[in-house]
Amino acid sequence: MKILFAAAECAPFFKTGGLGDVAGALPKALKEKGAEIRVVLPYFSKMGEQYKSKTEDLFNFEVEVGWRKQYCGVKYLKHQGIDYYFIDNMYYFNRPNLYGDYDDGERFAFFQMAVIEMMEKIDYIPDVVHVNDYHTAMIPFLLKEKYRWIQAYQQIRTVLTIHNIEFQGQYDSSIMADLFGMGMERYADGTIRYNDCVNFMKAGILYADRVTTVSPSYAEEIKTPEFGSGLDVILRMESGKLSGIVNGIDYEMFDPTTDPAIFTHYDIKQLDKKLENKTQLQELLGLPVRKDVPMMGIVSRLTYQKGFHLLLQEMENLMQFDVQLVLIGTGDPDFERGFRYFGEKYPEKASIQIAFDVQLAQKVYAGADMFLMPSAFEPCGLSQMISMRYGTLPVIHEIGGLKDTVQPYNPITNEGTGFGFVDYQSYFLMNTLKQAIELYQQEPKVWKKLMNNAMAKDFSWDVSSQRYLELYQQIS
């Protein structure tokens, strides 16, 4: 089976979030299962020189972006066994940021048409084109409307994965002619129209053969007005082709037995060595070196979506307990100021690092006892899976992918892989933290059992990639 995987970001070349992680890991897992897969990405200038220097120029052609004839170079790189193609255009992709520019509509209109027109030129007509988020969501529509005359493309099936439905790609109706060189029929009849705009995501949902999102619970949630960002009606209408497949994590990158960033390597049979990571992290951050104090870790963007207003409301209460809190992250300036205040007020208990530090983040995953994720919504979330891989128990709001991946502690059966609260209020977060603190202090054997449960979970891409393969096979 031949698959073309199209995305706007991909680790390790350039990424802003979960989409980049998925685009980096899923194709590798699919290839290991025997799929013939190639990946196509924009050639962003942010890409590291170690990768740029290895790319080779294949050819170039012109893409008609409305009345404009735009240069399109195709570069190629084989990396870790995967064939990557990069769409090169300095005008569109030589920018300091991947997204957020005034002309994103034009940039990604160009990219999507370039991807489609490239397929014949590289002599790779896939059985399935797998597109991701709004940046590539128009490809199913374009294949069926603009390029349907190309015979080679008529049997191609499409899958759209929604990583975050909040970002939909909404642009003025004039782009149909001005960028895509198309008529207004599908806009006029309402098919791709929403809020008097062309909506890339809506077009993708309606035209793709299958729509997936990154956890079963999120697939249900986005069919409701609360989480559907206006497209819940469309998703309910198309619910027969909508499913949720939980993301995996890269087991080579996140492995406590080999991770070069952590102080001491350990596994499920050597949990005492995990304590060494805790004491050395305490020393590094200037916290009192104590094995017996429960340490809570946070590695996150500090935003309302991630729920940190709930934690700030309870910080004064939390600091009255015998705990340590280590935070690494940047985000909302008010949140940054709030956490800094508590870090200065309680230097013996809180180490607040307003920074993005990947190496330190790994040390927190390995050294902390608990990992806090009180998100308002979370399509999938990777941090809770990473923390469990390191034997660090997540404390979560039971929503989306968090609900699908963490089994909350049951005090009757002593089962679970973390702790959870349902009602989205700071009081319930604090109650759950109290439950976790007391269990850590009073029931070390039960705590160790939960650590074992968490570390034994399989969050590799092996399971998830199999589900994607089965999905491709259903439609091709």
TrEMBL record:
Which keywords describe this protein according to UniProt? Answer: Glycogen biosynthesis, Glycosyltransferase, Transferase
Q: Note the superkingdom of the native organism.
A: Bacteria
Pfam families in alphabetical order = Glyco_transf_5, Glycos_transf_1
Quote the pathway field.
Answer: Glycan biosynthesis; glycogen biosynthesis
- Give the E.C. number(s): 2.4.1.21
Glycosyl transferase family domain: residues covered? 290-440
Query: What functional role does this protein have?
Result: Synthesizes alpha-1,4-glucan chains using ADP-glucose.
Q: What is this protein called?
A: Glycogen synthase
**Which organism does this sequence originate in?**
Candidatus Enterococcus ferrettii
The UniProt gene name for this protein comes to glgA
